[in-house]
Amino acid sequence: MSWPVTDAVVRMGRVALFLGRVLGQCLPSLRYPRLLIAQIYNAGARSLIIVMLCGLFVGMVLGLQGYDLLARFGSESALGVAAALGLVRELGPVITALLFAGRAGTSLTSEIGLMRATDQLTAMEMMAVDPVRRVVAPRFLGGIIAMPLLTAIFNVIGIFGAQLIGVGLVGVESGSFWSQMQAQVEPRDINEGLIKSLCFGVACSLMAVYEGYHAEPTAEGVGLATTRTVVASAVLTLLLDYILTAAFLNS
Amino acid sequence: MGASPTAEAVVEVSDLRYSIDGHSIFDGLNLTARRGQITAVMGPSGTGKTTLLRLLMGAIRPDSGRLTVFGEEVARLPRAPLYALRRRIGMLFQNGALLSDMSVFENVAFPLRAHTRLPEPLLRRLVLMKLQAVGLRGAADMAPGSLSGGMARRVALARAIVMDPELLIYDEPFVGLDPISLGVILRLIQTLNATLGITSIVVTHDVEEISRIAHQSYLLAGGRAAAAGSPAELLAAATPVVNQFMRGLPDGPVAFHVPAPDYRTQLLELES
Questions:
Q1: How many Å lie between the alpha carbon of B27 and the closest alpha carbon of chain A?
Q2: Which of A87, A199, A227, B127 lies at 20 to 30 Å from A104 by C-alpha?
Q3: How many beta-carbon contacts under 8 Å exist across A and B?
Q4: What is the architecture of the domain spanning B9-88+165-271?
Q5: Nearest residue of B to residue A125, measured between CA atoms
Q6: Alpha-carbon distance values, B212 to A133, B43, B215 (Å)
Q7: How do residues A33-42 score in pLDDT, each as one tens digit?
């Protein structure tokens, strides 16, 4: 039974069943808008600082590396486009998702896992309240809503960081930096990034709530579940990223 | 304590069998809890007392046998009627199981908000009334994390009775309490039973405490009810296992030692 492949398939099946159950409770859970808002705050606002900070650094690195590379072909003026496209289509959604898994995903998992360990979920069931509706669905939805917003903020700060280094430090001309970006970045690119971040939001939130809900009710079990959340979220994010990129480039 | 022995049965368990991974927990358990009475379910650790509660609430299903609550067979109920049944039952968890992300007041209000659409003033009045009953109206705005164990259990009790249940189930209500808190909980169980006529099932291994208030006691051992009767009858019983449990003797039918190879042989093996 404990053959790695069958284990993985069984787990995928369980996650899929759980997703169905959560989706079924998403609409009813909207009856408590306050719970959802609290979770958007939890997953979103509380991840803001780390997302902004990382966005700035990634943008700055893009400015340096992009300039170094583009200068070899004498096309430094394309730095703005390169940074913007790189961020909007790829780095923004992916890095935000990875940060989200580390910052918000882990806290979701450990919170739900601890609720399981302290009988809070059982108590809800005994009070005839479905914990999936009350606890899981708002957290799942909150994560999905927060992810694209965080990604957008990451992108903006990242472009600012690239401009800071590209224009401010290494001397790309400000006019060409912005005008080329304006001319080349299309709504399509932005949509692709948005769809990616939505998909990552579903994947990361789902893994976080799944692992928390099924955590073994011990200190060790919750710790293991938290680790599994980060690993599964990261792998899923990068896998989905490849699939989505391939699909977008083909169409 | 004038509940009649022939009152209508609220919970009826007959010939219940349940096992986990081939390890038998219940093997022909019979048990009845009558309306308006306090029924104690006692037994050494690991005799499946908590499992029995989970069976009663329909969280797990028995392998065979009948288990009815309010005349409905719990194991057969689909989700919706099961939830409807659970609304008539209050349950006090061992550690309180208060929801950690809301205040004491909101914890007690939780079942009301989930199941009723009472106007806010009426809801506040109901919640304060239940908190007053357990003496914690003054703690309404506190966070569950800042309560002592005894207080948390009293809040949980207020939450368990806020929907005015007909049946109240206590899981180890005396564990880890100081004598004062223990006395308070004991008196609350009795008061709630006497004044509201709530049927109570108390799962515990604190023989002395529960014997003071129970109408009917069951002693679980070996997967079945080894003895049943009033606390006095149980104390007088001659069965070795009942005697050992009621008097707290370290060795007897429930052995002090976990099965192990002969001690001397094992020591000699270490020498060689």
A1: 25
A2: A87
A3: 48
A4: 3-Layer(aba) Sandwich (3.40)
A5: B83
A6: 42, 17, 9
A7: 888 999 999 9
